Amino acid sequence: MKTPKLKFYDKGFISKYSNYTEVQILSAGTAVLKLKIYEDRICRDTFECQASRVFNEEYLNRNYDENFLKNLFESDKKEIIHRDKENGILIKIKKD
Fold first, then answer.
1. How many angstroms separate the CA atoms of 78 and 61, rounded?
2. CA dihedral in degrees (22, 27, 32, 38; nearest 10)?
3. R_g (Cα) of the chain, nearest Å
């Protein structure tokens, strides 16, 4: 995941629960990013929850759909590459 404010190039886990999806990115066995993605908000371990729209404005781009990350990480596709050159965003997901 590479955005102007978030840069992580490591492996991690995507866990789906009944009311949220959790994304953890690890570096050398230590969690460097942990997101809980709910229907209407995204919570990061370093700050309180934000509305999905607010998170997108701050870390992606305000033109992104409110449920963009939720839909991306909950997709059943084995490999996802989202490239947005205009906004400097690259998100690659490869599922084992």
1. 25
2. -10
3. 13
Q: Is 6 inside a domain boundary?
A: no
User: With pLDDT > 70 as the criterion, what percentage of the chain qualifies?
Assistant: 99
C-alpha closest to that of 74 among 32, 17, 33: 17
Q: Is 52 helix (H, G, I), strand (E, B) or coil?
A: helix
Q: What's the predicted TM-score (pTM) here? A: 0.86
Name the residue range of residue 34's domain: 12-94
DSSP H helices, the chain, are: 52-59, 68-74
Does the structure show a pLDDT above 80 at 23? Answer: yes
Which tokens go with 21?
């999806």
Q: Say how many domains are in the chain.
A: 1
The token pair at 60 is 């992606």
For the chain, first and last CA: distance in Å? Answer: 17
Is the pLDDT higher at 9 or at 91?
Answer: 91
